[in-house]
Amino acid sequence: MHSVTDSVISSKLSELFAIARNVLVLTGAGISAESGVPTFRGGGNTAVWKGMPFDVISSAGMLQRDLPAVWEWFNYRRGLLGPVKPNAAHHAIAGWQKQFEHFTVVTQNIDGLHQAAGSRDVIELHGSIWRARCFDCETRHELRDLRIGQEVPSCMDCGGHLRPDVVLFGEMLPPGAFERAAAEAQHCELCFVVGTSAVVYPAAAIPEIAHAAGAYVVEVNPEPTPLSEICDEVLTGKAGEILPLLSPTSASSSQLMRSVPSA
Ligand code: APR
User: Fold this and answer.
1) Distance set, CA 132 to CA 41, 60, 157, 163, 263 (Å)
2) Per-residue DSSP letters for 224-263?
3) How many whole angstroms separate alpha carbon 157 and alpha carbon 69?
4) Which residue from 93, 99, 113, 119 has the least number of CB within 10 angstroms?
5) What's the pLDDT score for residue 2?
C-alpha cells in the first residue's frame, strides 16, 4: 500500500511555497476522487453509461441526436454529486488563496467542489454541471433554481431549449477561459497539476505553458502521466493526503522535508 511518506516534499518546494507570490493550480477528476466522484480514466478503466463510453454520451454529436439522453446522463451525474462534499485537497487549495499575492485555480472539473470548499474566481475550463445554457439566447441558468424532470427544461427568458452548461467532446471551451488560464500560466512561479491524466487538450497545455515560462511545475497523482517527465517535482500519492502537507501552517511539512544534498 503506497503511503504519503513515499513521496516527500523537497526543501526546494517548501521554500518556494513559502516565498512564491504568483501560483497556479490545475486540477482534474482525481482531486474529487477522495470525495467519491468517479474519475474518467486512471486505474485502467473508463466510465460507461448504458453501454455507451462517456465520451460518446458527453459529445456534441449526441447533443444534436438525442438531447433528452444527454440530460438523463447529466441528471444522473448531478444526482451522484448532490451529497458529495469537498475533501482535504479542495480545502487545502481554498486555504492557499490567502497565502499568495496572486493565486489562480483552473479546473477541468464540472462538480463545483472547489467553490464549495471556498475557492473564489475558479476558471472552469469545462463548464459546470450546476448550470444550464439556452440554445437560443445563450442565457445561463443556475440548475439549483430549476425543476428538472424527464423533459428537456426550457429557458425562463425566451422559452428555448436548455442544454447542460458543460463542454462536451467536440465542443469549444467557454470563450476566454483557456486564454485567461494560459495568461496566468505564463506568469506563475509555481504550478501544481493535481489529479489529471493530462491527456485532454487544451487543458493539458496549461502546465506546459507554465514550464516553458520557467515556473516550477509539481505534479500530484498516484500514477505517472505524460506530463510527469516535464515536471520539476512529482509527488506520487493522493491529493487529499499530500496537499494538506503544503499548507503554510501544517507543522508536518517540516518533518517530511527532504533535505536536498547541498551541491
Ligand atoms: N489524488 C490525485 N490524483 C488522483 C487520485 C487522487 N486521490 N485518484 C486518481 N487520480 C488521478 C488518476 O491517476 C488519473 O491520472 O487522477 C487522474 C484522473 O484522470 P481522468 O479521469 O482522465 O480525469 P481528467 O484528467 O480530469 O480528464 C480530463 O476528460 O473526460 C474528460 O471532460 C472530462 O474534464 C475531463 C477531462
Assistant:
1) 26, 15, 13, 5, 55
2) --TTGGG-SEEE-S-HHHHGGGGSTT-THHHHT-B-PPP-
3) 24
4) 99
5) 47
DSSP H or E run through 166: strand 162-166
Distance CA 206, CA 222 (A): 20
Report pTM. Answer: 0.91
Of the residues 126, 141, 187, 211, which is catalytic?
126
Calculate how far, in angstroms, residue 160's C-alpha sits from the geometric centre of ligand 1. Answer: 34
Q: How many residues does the chain have?
A: 263
Nearest-angstrom CA–CA distance, 196 and 204? 8
> Which cell numbers in the block locate residue 193?
497539476
Residues of the chain falling short of pLDDT 50: 1-3, 5-6, 44, 252-263
Closest C-alpha to 111, from 63, 145, 138, 74: 74
pLDDT of amino acid 49: 82
How high is the pLDDT of residue 258? Answer: 42
CA distance 161 to 68: 11
Cβ atoms of residues 84 and 37 within 8 Å = yes
Tell me how far the alpha carbon of residue 182 lies from the centroid of ligand 1, in angstroms: 20
Q: Atom of ligand 1 at shortest distance to CA of 43?
A: 13
CB of 28 sitting under 6 A from ligand 1:
yes
Active site residue 126: yes
Spatial separation of the C-alpha atoms in residues 228 and 102, rounded to whole Å: 25
pLDDT of residue 183: 98
- Tell me, in angstroms, the distance from the centre of ligand 1 to residue 26's CA: 11
Atom of ligand 1 nearest to the CA of 109: 34
Grid look-up 428538472 returns: 148
Cell numbers standing for residue 18 = 513559502
